[in-house]
């Protein structure tokens, strides 16, 4: 109610302020060190230094919650126009695959509904048979 609790402060008569390391004069100090520029007679510029040959494999280290993810459209390039063109083709392919998957899912859903209706009707038939057998005076093992 009266605010945050603060511990009581006790004066320290030996406190001389915030501690700082002692500084000693260095008579040999010549300023900040700069590395010397030394010519390298073996150096020759290479304009293709970062040019790489075709990369045939690539590896990923992934953690997946659900297995089954497939990576098959990987492009490594520095050509933006080519990447844009290939991305458009991949999106068209993915749209076709999505439509096909939706169609297959719909067929599977209908099949599951039919099986569920069939199993429900069998369960009803079983219940009717059980109720008819209740009138008999024998035990079944």
TrEMBL record:
Question: Could you tell me which InterPro entries the record lists for this protein?
Answer: Calret/calnex, Calreticulin/calnexin_P_dom_sf
- Residue intervals passing through the bilayer: none
**Compositional bias segments (type: Acidic residues):** 121-134
Q: Which domain of life is it from?
A: Eukaryota
Residue ranges of the region described as Disordered: 1-44, 90-141
Does the entry feature the keyword Cytoplasm, yes or no?
no
Keyword annotations for this protein, in alphabetical order, are: Calcium, Chaperone, Endoplasmic reticulum, Lectin, Metal-binding, Zinc
Any single Pfam family the record assigns to this protein: Calreticulin
Q: Where is the composition biased (Basic and acidic residues)?
A: 96-120
The entry sums up its family as follows: Belongs to the calreticulin family.
Q: What is the protein name stated in its UniProt record?
A: Calreticulin-like
Which species?
Musca domestica (House fly)
